[in-house]
Amino acid sequence: MNAQRLAVATSIAADRRRHQRVEVDLLGRFMMPNLQEYPCQVTDMSPGGAALISPVAANIGDRIIAYIDHIGRIEGKVSRLIDGGFAMTIQTSSRRRDKLAAQLTYLANKDLLNLPEDRRHERQVVENPFNKLVMSDGREYPCSVLDISLSGAAVRTKVRPSLGTVVHLGNMRARVVRHIDEGIALEFIVVQTEETLGADT
């Protein structure tokens, strides 16, 4: 019986650790039940919930779909109202929840480590470097990937979008963070996994 209680307590503690909230400063947008979209700022987040600063009021129980920089799509319901916004639960699969935990761990530690972007994740040379850059207006340019990691890529290209420009490298949405001798350096909006990176490169 004691062993059973210990196992239950250990499981509860592990679940609490998995859902520990992390202070973040992430921009995004969300959709209300009336299908209207609004900008938002996420101030803290865990794999099970998030606090959003919002320009409009929400009601407890409203279903919310949000797209958050560096995180991607989340959905759930408004659980409580906070000053200037609301807190929402995140309803997702256990696999996606584990991915969220990994993304939040990265976001919590990257500033503490104070590493340049290309050192936060190990970079690798891709077998097939040829790809395309797609601008927000749909224009496409051929490019070749010099190296890539879970959080970004260095790309050889003749075009030089201004810093901060959002582009697509294949299917991955990214932001231009530096100009380099041969082209540009990109930071992915959503930190990739080995599986998605392999599928997109």
Describe the protein in words.
- The strands form 2 sheets. This protein has a 6-stranded antiparallel beta barrel.
- The chain is of the alpha+beta class.
- The longest helix is centred in the middle third of the chain and has 20 residues, at 94-113.
- Helix content is 24%, strand content 42%.
- Strand 1 and strand 2 (37-46) form a beta hairpin.
- The protein has helices at 2-18, 94-113, 117-120, 194-200, and strands spanning 22-31, 37-46, 49-53, 63-68, 72-82, 85-89, 130-134, 140-148, 152-156, 166-169, 172-180, 183-188.
- The chain is built from 4 helices and 12 strands; from the N terminus they run αββββββααββββββα.
- The relative contact order is 0.11.
**Annotation field: number of helices:** 4
Strand content: 35-45%
Reading side by side through the largest sheet, how are the strands ordered?
1-2-3-6-5-4
Radius of gyration computed on alpha carbons: 19 Å
The outline comes out as: elongated
Low-confidence stretches: 5-18, 112-120
Q: How many strands, what sense, and barrel or not for the largest sheet? A: 6 strands, antiparallel, barrel
Helix fraction bin? 10-25%
DSSP E strands, number:
12
Overall residue-averaged pLDDT value: 80
Distance between the termini: 52 Å
What is the ordering of alpha helices and beta strands? HEEEEEEHHEEEEEEH
By secondary-structure content and strand pairing, the structural class works out as alpha+beta
